[in-house]
Specification:
Helix content: 25-40%
Oligomer: single chain
Shape: globular
Number of helices: 2
Strand order of the largest sheet: 1-4
Length: 64
Amino acid sequence: MRIKADTHLCVGSGQCVLTEPAVFDQDDDGIVALLTDHPDDQRAAPACHAVTLCPSRALSIRQE
């Protein structure tokens, strides 16, 4: 699994960071920043949930 973040779509709601702070962060402007794009098994489910919560659909998951 690989997470992709489109920073041009991000509106800075922070739902991803609140849901899985080990995978997602925000830069100084509030835009999503990935701490890792390949979450480990423990972080995969919460990261997937965070992707579904993104109001601007800036996050996506690709299976590898």
